[in-house]
Sequence to fold (341 residues):
Amino acid sequence: MEKDVYILAVESSCDETAAAVVRNGREVLSNVIYSQIDLHTIYGGVVPEIASRKHIEKINQVIERALADAGLPLSEADAVAVTYGPGLVGALLVGVSAAKALAFAAGKPLVGVHHIEGHISANYIENPDLEPPFLCLVVSGGHSHLVLVKDYGEYEIIGRTRDDAAGEAFDKVARAIGLGYPGGPKIDRLSGEGNPDAIPFPRAKVGDSAYDFSFSGLKSAVLNYLNSCEMKKIPVNRADVAASFQKAVIDVLVEHSMDAVSRFGTGRFAIAGGVASNSSLRKAFSKACLERGIDFYHPSPVYCTDNAAMIGTAGYYEYIRGVRHGWDLNAVPNLKLGERV
Ligand code: KG4
Ligand code: ZN
Fold:
């Protein structure tokens, strides 16, 4: 029998300080997340400087907890994996520095991981049968990508947003209707009380690409609708706005994704990223995939939003492919998927 591989993983790219221990790429032994959301809520969004400072305060405790919860001494870890981009540079630097220090002190290999590769890999955790190739829609606060996962660690981006990310659109619309930050989960909840067909918001097409997205026009349409209601002194039904906006986003995501699955013929489709925890989006994809005979995969909500277990899973596949980073590994805020630095 082959020896088990234990990865200690660290994630600090935005406003979650997280560490996890993952065995053989698919078994999460611990998953510790310190969320800073409450700290940033009063500012209506993530304040990078505050995020970095809080990461510094919490990172060692979070890592110690992850090792303790897993019952794994650092000496028995096979490698330390860490998100080194994309993300907020000051926030990334905290995780990268902590991971480098630990790996150096304990004499362990260091594996830098792309944050989006982590989100995609979250699908491996609870789906033991999922193997590449498959198509994955990554929808988070900073990204909306349609990715062809050709093999472990091999990606081709076939569609992306031309402007706002899907999560960004949720957050901006939530702010406009007075729901506060983070907007996604709040719109998700309020939509349950509204009529998704109440307001005909636009479904944006990007002329020269079947798979690219654009959400800024939809966001403007919502703002225009709110302004015109105010001018005409018509009361706004916030639940209807939330539900109609959410449906407009989901319709476009489903249409583009289903077109791409049939074009690339993978027969398997996965979703990832914070917006992938949206309940209506999950239902819509599950229905669309069922109708087309496509196998549908999605992580549990805790593995959709930022966490380190997904970095441990991605880190494992990078580790067994032989990827190693040096002590000069740096944070790369605009790291491209598939790019090796
Ligand atoms: O993946 P994530 O935790 O961080 C990034 O890598 O960006 O995604 C955060 C984003 C935020 O924009 C948040 O509003 C959105 O995911 N989000 C949701 C839901 N939960 C989180 N959007 C829609 N519905 C949700 N239930
Ligand atoms: Zn993320």
The radius of gyration is 20 Å. The pocket of zinc ion (ligand 2) is lined by residues 115, 119, 140, 273, 306 (CB under 6 Å). The chain is about 45% helix and 20% strand. The mean pLDDT is 96.
